[in-house]
Known about the structure:
By secondary structure, the protein is an alpha/beta fold. It is about 25% helix and about 25% strand. The protein has 10 helices and 14 strands. The longest helix is centred in the middle third of the chain and has 14 residues, at about 160-175. It starts with 5 loop residues before the first strand and ends in a 9-residue tail after the last helix.
Amino acid sequence: MAEARIPLIVIGGFLGAGKTTLLNRWLAQADGRRLAVLVNDFGAINVDAALIAASAGDMVALTNGCVCCSIGDDLAAALIRLLDAQPRYDAIVVEASGVSDPWRIAQLALADPALELGGVVVLVDAACAPTLAADPRLADTLARQVAAADLVVLNKTDLAGTAERAQAKAWAATHAPGVPLLETVEARLPLAGLVGQPCAHAPHAHGACCDDPLHDHADHAAQFESVSLHPCAAWSPDSLRARLAALPPGVLRLKGLLRRDDGRFTEVQYAGRHASLRPAASAPEGPVLVAIGLRGQLPAAELRSLFGCPADTPG
Length: 315
């Protein structure tokens, strides 16, 4: 099988929505993953001094194997440096500037065979969104950002009144119809729901990782759910593409190996609204798909029906 591609996750959202808070959270809670974070100015994210192993030029290396880099004048060149690094990073996270379109960055992941799109996460300030969206000078920028989202994070909900939250949710639904929306405080979005790589720490008997206060397993369990599918059928690539195009709303990530009608296997990758297929050498444990979504929003029954699956086990 070809070498696994590295997920690229894009974080978007207007100024003050909580992007920096989310980046700090992911860097501190990497849980054994090697993350590379690209920002316009890494000094602005205020990395905990206790995590910094070394700092030189446009890069800050962290003690947990993660790195924070400055984009500089050329995002593509910065990505190439990270893709060439050894050992490889488990994921690359790019923060879009507060007034930019995150979809333009996400297109790099679709164009580069070394990358896969892990998703576009757009943060929205629940308290300010209705007022900002009503400003004709900002309305188009905000709408474009949310329209690019695979996941909308309605952040700072503790600072918003009931009416403001309702207005912000309605506005997001208008510009990103069918896109999953998560309400959060202090950008509490666990990375595991998007990358899905298990923690490197040994689990305890109850299944959770070590009780390091930096870990956020309760949030992960409360916010995401998964389902494992074991399709029996075989499809042509065109038929698979049609099924991926017909996925019901609520699926954040879908990945796995499926049997083609010519007897070979295909690796399936789907993030938000973007899918890809590529040849796979084999599937040692047989055809399998794993879908991830927000708890209560993952359409497990529809997925089983779409892929003709027998009784499967939720994750």
